Amino acid sequence: MQIVIDISENQYEIAKKFIETVDDKSPLAKAIVNGTVLPKGHGRLFDEKDIIKAHDNYELGWLNLDAVKPILEADSEKEVEK
């Protein structure tokens, strides 16, 4: 199963430290630490099947993504450039 969760950066760091220090590795901590962290400022995330279903007769180059419900809304925070 694949899920998307929203946790604070502090909670993520705690999970990472926990997995490094505990002998009996928690499956939940492993899942969090081995998960993919989305970058700050990411856009909306959609399921490709939903896009195709909503635009059965679309022409290449024109998609109205406002007609498709995102799986996850965009992150409003802008990534700080280093």
Please sum up the structure shown.
This protein has 82 residues and is mainly alpha-helical.
Structure in words:
It is a single chain. The chain is mostly helical. The chain folds into 2 domains: 1-35, no CATH class; 38-82, no CATH class. It has 3 helices and no strands.
Shape: elongated
How many helical elements?
A: 3
Q: What is the H/E string? A: HHH
Q: Percent range for helical residues?
A: 25-40%
Write the layout of secondary structure elements.
Blueprint: H1 9-21, H2 27-33, H3 48-54
Helix pairs in contact: 1-2
Keywords:
elongated, mainly alpha, 3 helices, 82 residues
